[in-house]
Design goal:
This protein is of the alpha/beta class. It has 9 helices and 7 strands. The strands form 2 sheets. The chain has a 5-stranded parallel beta sheet with strand order 2-3-1-4-7, with helices on both faces. Strands 5-6 form a two-stranded antiparallel ribbon. The protein binds adenosine monophosphate. The site of adenosine monophosphate has 17 residues, from helix 2 and helix 3.
Length: 218
């Protein structure tokens, strides 16, 4: 199973890819998570990426492509993978195609999660994240049990700088201009499936599993 999850920020790609990775035993590759990890570890790459990320702009293609290339050579990706948040530009998609071709494999499906702009803004602006274990919550839709503390590890929750209003606007604009052309790019290759991402997490997952019916869970 080799999948790409496509869609605007806040459509639920991260949550759904986590569930698919666990249920189907494949690797989840999230470029956002990999970049945040590099920022936390204060690597040279992380220091370069931070200012782009804080503003909601895309990190240069060459940087993310390098990260994904490394990750795809990991044995954990041999059975399959879900790419969450990559590719985000046509050049990234071209590079991905090249890397997979070198490995003699191909993408099975690209799932395009669709949620209205209004809902995406609500989801992102209310999101709270755990800086330690990366769990996410929502002030209205999925509040933590104890005020502002992570249910999983107890760490204090934060609002990511790119989940603040101004950065959200930039991220949505960047999505429209640079990422949304991938919808027709993958449609032309016959790989695209549109999925309504507007319901609750379990409801969306149920519809997703129908698309993934040919694959076995672990
Ligand atoms: P995400 O968690 O997927 O919303 O990503 C958070 C931020 O990381 C984005 O707003 C970008 O700054 C950066 N980022 C993640 N994936 C990519 C990518 N494929 N290309 C460029 N920048 C990315």
């Amino acid at each position: 199973m080799r999948l790409v999850f496509l869609g605007a920020p806040g459509v639920g790609k991260g949550t759904q890819s986590e569930k698919v990775a666990t249920q189907y035993g494949v690797a989840k590759i999230s470029t956002g998570d990999l970049l945040r990890e590099a920022v936390r570890a204060q690597t040279a790459l992380g220091k370069d990426a931070k200012s782009y990320m804080d503003q909601g702009r895309l990190v240069p293609d060459s940087v993310v492509i390098g990260l994904v290339r490394d990750k795809l050579s990991d044995p954990s990706c041999a059975i399959g993978f879900v790419l969450d948040g990559f590719p985000r530009t046509v050049p990234q998609a071209e590079e991905l195609g090249g890397v997979l071709l070198q490995r003699n494999v191909r993408l099975d499906r690209v799932i395009n999660f669709q949620v209205s702009r209004e809902d995406v803004i609500k989801r992102l602006s209310g999101r709270r994240s755990c800086p330690k274990c990366q769990s996410t919550f929502h002030v209205d839709f999925a509040p933590p049990q104890k005020n502002d503390r992570c249910d999983r590890c107890g760490e204090g929750l934060i609002q990511r700088s790119d989940d603040k209003r101004e950065a959200i606007e930039t991220r949505l604009k960047v999505y429209e201009e640079q990422t949304s052309p991938l919808i027709s790019y993958y449609d032309q290759k016959g790989l695209l499936t549109n999925l309504d991402g507007s319901g609750g997490v379990d409801n969306v997952y149920q519809n997703l599993t129908k698309v993934l019916a040919p694959y076995k869970t672990v």
